[in-house]
Write a structure and sequence with these properties.
It contains three helices and 20 strands. The chain is α+β, with helices and mostly antiparallel strands.
């Protein structure tokens, strides 16, 4: 039997050992992991569709121009980067032969008009002479044969006048033909815009593109006052898209900036490219012309808004696990699993129908395998 003092010493030793063990465990245990949390609140949630590959800024009007007929360039009126007005000449081809033909036709017209004028004066005089002869024949002063000869002479003179009038019209038509030929040698701007590219120099030959053989245009003209974005959307999302739907546009060249627009056209066919997903091209107009200078050809991303709900309870989409649940910060800073019923969703937010309340804090990241339900964590507010 142990004596009372022995028992007392034994109890003291046991208690001291337990205290030392607890102190050792308390000071050597790992600290709760820092986790990034998000607070559940109300806001807007949208169902959106985004392009599968980068879209492109395009001009409403862009013309790759070439002369109607080939020839040698003798004048280049513009250079790359110039702004031009509608109807302004851009380049001119060698056309001395056509100019000479126009001059010849002009001289022939002048000659024809002189001959017509002479013939018509003679015809008018013959008509008046025939009228006088007919009156004299009626009065018996001249024979009826004399009157018939005068009428025949008047008709012949009038026929000659008519023939030379037709010859004048032919000469006028010939001038129009040569003028049209000259106009074919001058390339003019069909609309106001900026010259993007000029192919060829003075003295070089330029030709229009033969059918099936694409050649560089002589002048590439862009109307940069009207721009839109064309972007490929996955064929699966095509039935959700409609003209007039709101959209957001962003550019790699302008990070952090978003522009509002709307869908103006959806291609009536699916684009099939080898080794790529099948897509439908969608064109999006800007609601307000951007103040920034946008270059045709900029890469762009389009986010078409299919449906939108305002002032709903929402959770960051990245906080939802694959099984549809979230980890919620519970009592004593321990994580708890919570199942959700969700509504609209996009890459940023998901609508909460049930399962969470405003003010709840949910885990945002799942990088640490040790962070799971039942684990005590150290909350860290998301930046």
């Amino acid at each position: 039997m142990f004596k009372p003092k022995t028992w007392l010493r034994l109890v003291v030793v046991v208690l001291m050992g337990a205290a030392l063990a607890y102190a050792g465990w308390h000071f050597t245990r790992p600290a709760p992991p820092d986790v990034e949390l998000a607070t559940i609140a109300r806001g807007a949630v949208e169902s959106t569709v985004v392009n599968t590959r980068a879209g492109t800024v395009k001009a409403c009007r862009r013309a790759k121009l070439a002369p109607v007929a080939g020839g040698q360039i003798v004048k280049l009126w513009v250079k790359e980067g110039d702004r031009v007005k509608a109807g302004q000449p851009l380049l001119e081809l060698w056309s001395r032969d056509l100019a000479a033909q126009r001059e010849l036709a002009t001289r022939q017209l002048a000659t024809s008009e002189d001959r017509r004028r002479e013939a018509c004066i003679m015809a008018d005089n013959a008509r008046r002479n025939a009228e006088r002869t007919e009156q004299l024949a009626k009065q018996g002063f001249v024979s009826s044969q004399r009157g018939e000869d005068a009428r025949a002479e008047a008709r012949a003179r009038q026929a000659n006048c008519d023939a030379l009038t037709a010859d004048v019209k032919r000469a006028q038509a010939q001038i129009r033909v040569t003028q049209a030929g000259l106009e074919r040698t001058t390339l003019t701007a069909p609309f106001a815009g900026i010259v993007a590219r000029v192919t060829g120099e003075v003295g070089e030959f330029t030709t229009p593109s033969p059918p099936g053989i694409p050649t560089p245009p002589a002048v590439d003209l862009i109307d940069d006052t009207c721009l839109y974005v064309s972007a490929p959307m996955d064929e699966v999302d095509a039935p959700k898209l409609k003209p007039g739907q709101a959209a957001r546009i962003s550019f790699d060249a302008l990070p952090g900036q978003t522009f509002h627009g709307h869908v103006r056209r959806i291609a009536p066919y699916v684009t099939e490219v080898e080794k790529q997903a099948r897509t439908v091209d969608v064109e999006v107009d800007f609601d307000t012309p951007p103040q920034q200078i946008l270059l045709v050809g900029y890469s762009a991303d389009v986010e078409a808004i299919i449906e939108q709900r305002a002032n709903v309870l929402r959770v960051p989409t990245q906080a939802i696990q694959q099984d549809g649940s979230v980890l919620v910060l519970g009592a004593s800073d321990k994580l708890e699993t919570r199942s959700l019923e969700t509504g609209l969703a996009n890459w940023a937010f998901t609508e909460i129908v049930s399962g969470l309340n405003a003010g709840d804090r949910v885990l945002l990241t799942f990088d640490d395998e040790n962070v799971k339900a039942g684990v005590k964590v150290k909350p860290k507010t998301a930046p």
